[in-house]
Amino acid sequence: MAVSDEPITSANEGEFDWLVDIIVTPKLGVNDPEGEAILHGLHGLGHRRVTRVRAGQFFQVALVAVSETDAIAAAETMCRDLLANPVIQTYEIARAVRVVQSGVGTAVTP
Question: pTM above 0.85?
Answer without folding.
Answer: no
